[in-house]
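Lab notebook, bench 4. The sequencing result for the construct came back, and we need a structural model before the next group meeting so we can plan mutations. Quick request posted to the team channel:

Model the 3D structure of this chain.
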Amino acid sequence: MIYEVVWVENKNADWKVATLREKIDGGKEVTDVSINRTNKQGQAFPNFDGIAPGAEVHGEFWRSPANKNYLFPPKPQTPRSGGGGAAFKGKQIEEAQNRTHEHVKEAQESKGQAIKVAAAMRDATLLAICVFAVSTPETI
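Done. Here's the predicted structure in token form:
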């Protein structure tokens, strides 16, 4: 979430306490928010030295069970692996449409061939009927 820094106090080189306001209409104000240069996992807070009144900060707000407020670095956006995501689904849909297109094309070609065979059989039957209708048993 994005916050606006209302007030900040530098406790030491790696720790600040600030009052933050959410950057949305009617956003609530949170006081005594601890911001550390690096968290326990070693992630650095972006633009830690630029945190000053009036500045915008991006971070994840957390209130501890002891009712203390903290602002952590924003979580990195990692692409989902495996079978998730819109791009993956779009790719799967496109592949399915291509397969369907190929199958329809094959079916239409088979249908065309079947029509030709049926027409040839019809013509052969008509020729046979004409031959039998004109000829006598002796000429057959």
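The longest strand covers residues 2-12.
Will bring this to the meeting.
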